[in-house]
Amino acid sequence: MRQLSRLQSMVMAAGAVLILVGAAMGMVLPQVAPWVFAVGALAFTSMQLQQRYDGDNLTIQRLRRIMLMSDILLILAAALMFADYGNPFGLDHLTWLNYIHNNWVAAVLIAALIQLYTVFRMDAELRKEAKKR
Question: Who contacts 57 (Cβ-Cβ below 8 Å, separation ≥6)?
Fold first, then answer.
């Protein structure tokens, strides 16, 4: 796995903190929260995209693709967060409540669970691969 530079690691950590702060601000400052969350999600996912795996271990490649799906879910959660505070699609109120309102929470939860799974599995696989060498 390609290691990030010190600056890239700091940007990734700052993005993760902004994701947490933005999600927590959703209840307190709903007008600012989507912006904070979106900046954090973009920083975090862009740094995760910088990490590459050039090996031939199919398990790590699969886990990497799964991790990229969670990055897409984080960006989708940011878009749903923006759509949550207004009705940009022009839907009637009941449809908006059923399909848009607060669904960003589900997207963040799924993305977090996928990230948690892939990080621990990739670490174990990378250790196993290093022992073989």
Answer: 125, 129
Q: What is the pLDDT of residues 22-74, one digit of tens each?
A: 999 988 888 899 999 999 999 999 999 999 888 889 999 999 999 999 999 99
Length of the chain: 133
Q: How many CB atoms lie within 10 A of CB 32?
A: 13
CB 41 within 8 A of CB 78: yes
Q: Are 1 and 122 in contact (CB under 8 A)?
A: yes
Long-range pairs of 85-92 with CB within 8 A, sequence gap ≥ 24:
85/30, 85/31, 85/34
DSSP-assigned states of every residue in 51-110: ----S--HHHHHHHHHHHHHHHHHHHHHHHHHHHSS-TT---HHHHHHHTTTHHHHHHHH
How many angstroms separate the CA atoms of 100 and 37, rounded? 17
The whole-model pTM stands at: 0.88
Amino acid present at 79: A
CA distance 67 to 61: 10
